[in-house]
Amino acid sequence: MGNAAEDACLEGVTSIQRACASLVAYSSIEGTNEVRRWAEGF
């Protein structure tokens, strides 16, 4: 279909997935305590 609202929604989902993926990668590298501290300050 590809209307503007749909495209924006899909883009939003993609960027959320990317953010989650990088958070997961960060947590496995730096440890969950650092991520928790970051999330609380966010």
TrEMBL record:
**Its domain of life?**
Bacteria
Q: Protein name, please?
A: Uncharacterized protein
